[in-house]
Design a protein that fits this description.
Layout: H1 15-18, H2 31-45, H3 52-62, H4 68-82, H5 86-97, H6 108-112, H7 117-131, E1 134-135, H8 145-154, H9 158-166, H10 168-180, H11 186-194, H12 201-213, E2 237-238, H13 243-247
Antiparallel strand pairs: 1-2
Helix pairs in contact: 2-3, 2-4, 2-8, 2-11, 4-11, 8-9, 10-11, 10-12
């Protein structure tokens, strides 16, 4: 999938509280396999709009390069998508990720919710990307999970893995919520979680608290986003590169 068009361009004691759900134990992946798993899940987790069939085909062609435990999760979603009307799939996507608090695709939402802290959290994502030599320039907020996964797949900087690790609790909340709904997207997030290191106890406790209480709910609207609003954002490009030059 190396030549496929991408979003980014360079620039306790209770046993139920201390154990992972079956099927989410981490896998030992080399760097190339982890990158492939992250770009594949990025392409499948994005909204099923224009270009979705091409994304499905690109991921399907790469399944043989992934470990069976991850390839089977992606295959299940591809089969579901192939058997589902595109309009119905899009409606299901919106109903899942836009209307349920624990199924949010924006990672900072799990820690900050609709509170004044969210603006600072989004700026932190922008700063992390810039620290790794990338400039975010997409029609999405910078904490959008498919974008973060693509960053992880394409960046050589340790910042990429640190960004996912910092929001691991939110990823686990998303995984569990999708599993409870028997969502076709659950396996994709489960595959992402399995590509990451074992949960440490502090992250596990934060995740369990979020599962219980949900994200913070102080609603302040989107005015605090300022220049980070979606009309300004569009794909990654190298810092200092002209927009069209970065596409080459």
């Amino acid at each position: 999938m190396a030549n496929f068009p991408l979003i980014f361009r360079r620039s306790g004691s209770d046993a139920s509280r201390s154990s992972r759900r079956p099927g989410t134990a981490p896998l030992a992946l080399d760097d190339a396999t982890r990158r492939l798993a992250h770009i594949a899940t990025s392409l499948l987790l994005d909204y099923p709009g224009e270009g979705f069939d091409a994304r499905l085909a690109a991921v399907e062609a790469s399944l043989g390069e992934l470990p069976p435990a991850i390839a089977s999760e992606l295959r299940a979603f591809i089969d579901h998508a192939a058997a589902t009307d595109r309009e119905a799939l899009a409606i299901e996507y919106v109903a899942t990720f836009d209307l349920k608090r624990k199924c949010c695709m924006y990672l900072s939402y799990y820690a900050a919710g609709d509170t004044r802290r969210r603006g600072t959290a989004l700026v932190t994502f922008i700063q992390a990307y810039r620290a790794a030599g990338w400039e975010f320039d997409a029609d999405e907020l910078p904490d959008y999970l498919p974008a973060v996964l693509e960053f992880s797949a394409r960046s050589d900087s340790p910042v990429a893995s640190e960004l996912l690790s910092a929001h691991r609790d939110g990823l686990e909340v998303l995984r569990e919520a999708l599993e409870k709904q028997r969502s076709p997207w659950a396996g994709l997030v489960r595959a992402v979680c399995r590509s990451l290191p074992e949960l440490d106890e502090a992250t596990r406790e934060r995740y369990l608290e979020l599962v219980s209480q949900g994200p913070p709910a102080e609603t302040v609207g989107l005015s605090f986003l300022g220049s980070l609003g979606p009309t300004v954002l569009a794909p990654y490009q190298p810092v200092g590169a002209a927009h069209e030059e970065a596409r080459a």
